[in-house]
Records
---
Amino acid sequence: MVRGSAGFYATIRADADRSYTTCKAEAFAAPMCFLTSDFEAGSDNFAPYELALMDAYSQVGRIDLARLVRGGKPFQRLGRMLSGQEIKVEHLNATRRAVLGETDGKTGEPMTGKAWGQEVSKRFRHDVQLKTFVTGFL
């Protein structure tokens, strides 16, 4: 972590059971502990700690790392989806927006799991693997 004086004072360590090698973009996405309840409700607006981290990286001249934090929402969303926690339609819509680079507030998104599953099934009706995944929502 970066202190206001631009000095590093702490590191974040994952437990050994869930450690893995990943790309730079995922490695420098803001940690999940920085997120607020807005994220859980489906918002991809930046939380105060995410903004502070981007600012800290910028202050020490690491604009590249600040950009990785800014672009980290898809990794946060995918991590949330794969964590084993309950998946709600808000998470599905937010993951889709994050991956496509869309902003919050998009109209016309499915509001129920059934509607989401029907929309995806219609759009990707020939994709066997996706059909298997979506079956749980129909």
---
Amino acid sequence: MAQQSAPYTGPDVKTMIATHTLATNIITRHNDPCPVLDGSELVLLRRFVNNPSSSQQILKDCNMVDSPETSKRAGDGAQAKGSLVGFIVANHSLAGDGAGHAAMTDAEIGELKRWFDSGAADERMRGAVATGMSV
């Protein structure tokens, strides 16, 4: 019988985004039995923090572009795929156009980039494929 993972006990995503603590929680809860992000989401997040200006291309590559006909808000395409990172990427893209509110600040993105560069997430990302990516 498959063992269930531990329940997530951290703050909810809405609170982390509103208080700009999402990056800190991703890092500090990384080794928890139930981390904020799994390996595939970490792969996608690393791609984003390495080049935030590529957000539209990332969304296209992962089939997470919001549909003009059905999307009511930024990130609906990512939410349909169950991707928190896709939601962050979509909102960052719009914030740069003055049309939205960034889910992560430049300081948070820099903090995550340094964390990824340190290799701390490598083990969890090993063998993972970015969410939504075609393989």
---
Amino acid sequence: MKNDLNTIYPLLAKVGHKIIGDRNTQARTLWEHFYDEDIQIYEMNRLSSVQDIMSASSISDLVMLCEERKYSLDYDNKRVPIEGGFTKPHKTVEDFLRYRAVSNNLRTKKNKRATVQLVDFYQNRAKHNVRKRGTNADDCKRHFLRALVQRVHPFENSGTYVELAIKLKQFDVNVDQLKNARRTTFCTNVVFNSTSNRTLIRRMLKALGYQSSDNYQEWLDLLIHKGISNGVSMYN
């Protein structure tokens, strides 16, 4: 399908969305919302049911009801997204249910789009039973400290708790945080991949005296969730 600018729109299933206009207008509307960062809401008219009439104390119309609906244009995760926009089957039913649970949680509780990248990130954390507490920076610092005090390669022995707390004072790190980091098992690649997190990791490494010729890539490879570089697109 094409618009006036000869832009080709992929064939999008309306999946219950009742959109006004011809098929090109409908496709253009869905395609525009496909790239929205936030979940958009629209109003839809539907026929009232016997249950509506009997259960509601009062309804505006016995024939037609107006409801608010969310645009649902996120990937359904029936298959696992992989690099290059391709997919593969889930290994187990539990894997599928974990992907679906993460997707539903993002949409209903966090009110975020369940993008391929976000679902991949959070399901990886759920798989390792890692919960996110606080801001992205807090979470990044917490996993950095775990790798540091547990001396996970390429981290080395950088001193006592007191010495480390002094070096990392500018990041509000104290001895108690370092001791707690020792008690919790470290998991690789669970830090959200963002410019601010990568910058924070590099700053903390510099404060500890670490030097690197490749901009601390080894440490980033240990901590940052790599994710999917090219998620599922509507063209596949």
---
Amino acid sequence: MIHILLGNAEDDVDSVLNAAKTRKPLVGWIVPKGAHAGDRALFHLPAQGLAARGVIRTEPRVHGQRRYGRYRETIREITLLDPAVPLAFLRENHRSRKWPTYPKGYTTIDGRIEERLEELLKGYPPGSGSELKRISCAAAANPSSVKT
């Protein structure tokens, strides 16, 4: 299971980059209520796309009395994706998933969608073997549509 967490301000970008550089955890990041200790996280940062990975430290806790539905947790083991993966690449190569089209909040993915996302991340940037993966996925979906 992977939770895609959303950064929404320049401060968020700086916090993630600094956490990766210093190897310190991010404290108080908003996570889904259904997240669990040890779950993997990806950070979507403004103007960058998917820019970093991390691991959720413990079970999420409700933040404040007036913030119903907001759960916060510490994210550890922050590492940057080099290079960051733009959402345009995900929209082009994973058309069945709608979140990259309108990423206004966090999302959780698992199963086949998670496997496909990991495949896309490993194949980015294009030229690193991703063309072969894209062709093989297209062939599996519709063999007659692939031009060789």
